[in-house]
Amino acid sequence: MLGLDKLKNTASQKWRRACFSVNYKGSTKEGQACTISPGVPEIRQALSAQGGGALGDTLSSTPIGEPRQKITVATLKEKKLRGEPITCLTAYDYATARLVDEASMDIILVGDSVAQTMLGYENTLAVTLEEMLHHTRAVRRGVKHAFLVADMPFGSFHVTADDALRNATRFVKEGGAEAVKMEGGKKRAELIRRVIDAEIPVAGHIGLTPQSVNLMGGYKVQGKTLSAIEELMHDAIALDRAGVACIYLEGIPREVAAMITAEVSVPTIGIGAGPECDGQVLVFHDIVNLNFGPPAKFVRQYGDAAKLIRNAVEAFRSDVLSRHYPSDDESYHLPKETRQALETVLERKRSMRS
Ligand code: KIV
User: Fold this and answer.
1) What tens digit of pLDDT does each residue of 294-337 get?
2) How far, CA to CA in Å, does 145 sit from each of 41, 205, 329, 336, 349?
3) pLDDT tens by residue, 175-231
4) Is 209's C-beta closer than 6 angstroms to any atom of ligand 1?
5) Which atom number of ligand 1 is nearest to the Cα of residue 269?
6) Domains of the chain, residue spans
7) What is the pTM assigned to this prediction?
8) Which residues pair with 22 in a beta bridge?
């Protein structure tokens, strides 16, 4: 039996040679995966030896065996099939995006939570398409390996399907996003299908959808009654059938998230949706204590950037006030010859005055 690494290398080497005999499946449940034709039995055999099932027939089109793999839609699907957790964090600017990418996150989401975290709006409704594009471009410049998803803001896909398609295209063309995220379940399925038909991967988002805050009457956990659970299941299945790359599940009971995760073929990424999801996402500002409010129940803080920044800013201010900053070492100096010449000139002026 082949080891996993050897398997990956074998598969990767054979991949290019085998491409002519690979059939792409449509934008159905299989998403962008492709099947190996009977012409490459070694690959099929090797993959089934690794666990069989659907994975045995599925290969990523990304180069495998390089120091760090570029994450694609196919990689995410493979992770679900292999039962490997998917990691996702939001980022809104170049510096943070670089750090998050360098920490090997699978997905970086330019969430419309940028509205509150970076722009100080009360909720996500106000953030504009241009603002989202501005942040997506900055994040793009910092990301090399993660799969880059950008949120379509409120109003950018709610008016007409043509507008939605045009706006989704801008995220790919101008923002460098690899997928767009749209809130909503079955009522968005047709639109999502259209966007996918235009070669743009889509991430779904159901449960507590912040863009529906006025309709929901606040940020409330969803899916708590039998009829609400049924509704959510229908939403998830509609998105899966529409061919989404993954489904974000926000603010729902873990039991419901577990049922959805078991039901759909694509990865689920949870936030406040319990541990059974295929992956987890949190908002960057929440995990480093930069949100200026009490954290939600599901937030875990992994650092205290507020404290770090406050201490740094206060120390700088205090050094300036006490003239401890800048020191001589932190100053530029004249070259020796210029300094000597300057001293001669100043000395001559002084002697002329006296
Ligand atoms: O905008 C955002 O940050 C999100 C995540 C919470 C999923 O949509």
Assistant:
1) 999 999 999 999 999 999 999 999 999 999 999 999 999 999 99
2) 30, 23, 39, 49, 63
3) 999 999 999 999 999 999 999 999 999 999 999 999 999 999 999 999 999 999 999
4) no
5) 7
6) 4-59, 73-306
7) 0.81
8) 36
Q: Per the residue annotation, which of 250, 255, 343, 347 is the catalytic one?
A: 250
Residue 84 near residue 267, CB atoms below 8 Å: no
Q: What is the DSSP letter of 124?
A: G
Buried b (16+ CB within 10 A) or exposed e, 14-52: bbeebeeeeeeeebebbbbbbebeeebeebbebbeebee
Q: Scanning the structure block, which residue is given the tokens 């009977």?
A: 38
How far is 237 from 248, CA to CA, in rounded Å? 13
State the sign of the Cα–Cα–Cα–Cα dihedral 143, 276, 292, 214: positive
Which amino acid, residue 163?
D
CATH 3.40.50.2000 for domain 73-306, yes or no, is: no
250 is catalytic: yes
- Interval 65-122: pLDDT, tens: 557 899 999 999 999 999 999 999 999 999 999 999 999 999 999 999 999 999 999 9
Please give the distance, rounded to the nearest whole angstrom, from the Cα atom of residue 216 to the centre of ligand 1. Answer: 17
Distance, CA of 46 to CA of 224 (rounded, Å): 44
